[in-house]
Amino acid sequence: MRIVVALGGNALLRRGEPMTADNQRANIRIATEQIAKIHPGNELVIAHGNGPQVGLLSLQAAAYTQVSPYPLDVLGAETEGMIGYIIEQELGNLLDFEVPFATLLTQVEVDAKDPAFKNPTKPIGPVYSKAEAEKLAAEKGWAIAPDGDKYRRVVASPRPKRIFEIRPIKWLLEKSSIVICAGGGGIPTMYGEDGKLRGIEAVIDKDLCSSLLASQLEADLLVIATDVNAAFIDYGKPTQKAIGQAHPDEMEKLGFAAGSMGPKVQAACEFARKTGKTAVIGSLSDIEAIVQGSAGTRISTAKPGITYL
Predict the structure, then answer these.
(1) Which of 69, 114, 144, 227 is the most buried (most CB within 10 A)?
(2) What backbone phi and psi angles, to 5 degrees, belong to 165?
(3) For the chain, which domains are there?
(4) For residue range 202-254, what is the model confidence (pLDDT) as tens digits?
(5) Beta strands in 71-131 (DSSP E)
(6) Which residues on adjacent β-strands are paired with residue 43?
């Protein structure tokens, strides 16, 4: 099978953990131990989130006041290299020495008129108390939004239109490479009035980009790995229930929040509809079981209705 695995940025740096390189590597090691188990006989493409990482780089850049902070597209490119490097190294330590890897900086086109630029929803950086977040928003001109019982900075998250490096990704797969690409949803770019491509201050949703990537690669399975073991209704309440299998029409009726599970559900539904294949939302530590069909929330057009675990 050709499998696209999308690793959530919050899974790579878990909620409440100090955002250290060691913690990030430890979480990536959990993911790569799972991915190594599904490598035999499969073609693998790994995408990943970067919300905590790009937010941290933004804070670090802002602390050095002698020059203007780098824009989010440049910081996004930095995170693609940083996270890709660790994934390559950790996965390479588990697989045969002859297995080739490639981490690809991936430019993704967005529309300058996308309404997301007027309604920022993408959380980046660490979590704050409400008072801390409001203070930082006033000081730095941030938009903020609730994230569970905490608050985070939010930025524009336009829809991905085109993955510029899709052909090199296909070429690498044809040579049996494991490809790490579209990190953080890719580097957000757009064409200016002069017809030249340039970066834009935004963070593309990783799951929507991974869905587009998986569709264009004609993948057999899209795995959206996050920090929970399924998509839930009434999450965090006594009435919460995990969804086992669902048709896209049923999933979309449930109204998942835009700042958390919403983009994952939307991405999974879009892939299932476009391709007729299956997308699964589940835990980073369950990737092997997800591929085997025994874990996660499976979304496909194969069966009507919805079932719960």
Answers:
(1) 144
(2) -95, 20
(3) 2-112+161-308 (3.40.1160.10)
(4) 889 899 999 999 999 999 999 999 888 999 998 888 999 999 999 999 999 99
(5) 101-103, 107-109, 122-128
(6) 2
The β-bridge partners of 197 are 191
Which of 55, 76, 122, 185 is flagged as catalytic? 122
Closest-CA residue to 51 (of 82, 108, 12): 12
Looking up tokens 């940025």, which residue turns up?
9
What pTM was estimated for this model as a whole? 0.89
The verdict on whether 122 is a catalytic residue reads yes
* 206 is known as an active-site residue: yes
Query: Is residue 10 among the annotated active site residues?
Result: yes
Query: DSSP labels for 237-296?
Result: STT-EEEEEE-HHHHHTT---TTTTHHHHHHHHHHHHHHS-EEEEEEGGGHHHHHHTSSS
**Residues 6 or more apart from 193 whose CB is under 8 A from it?**
none
Q: Which two tokens stand for residue 71?
A: 């824009």
Of 76, 183, 206, 277, the active-site residue reads 206
Locate 82 and state its tokens.
């940083």
pLDDT for 158-206, tens place per residue? 999 999 999 999 999 999 999 999 999 999 999 998 999 999 988 898 9
Q: What is the pLDDT of residue 52?
A: 80
> Are β-strands 143-147 and 187-191 bridged in parallel, bridged antiparallel, or unpaired?
unpaired
What 3-state class would DSSP assign to 31?
helix
What distances in angstroms separate CA 201 from CA 143, 189, 213, 303, one per listed residue? 14, 9, 22, 40
SS3 of residue 199 by DSSP: strand
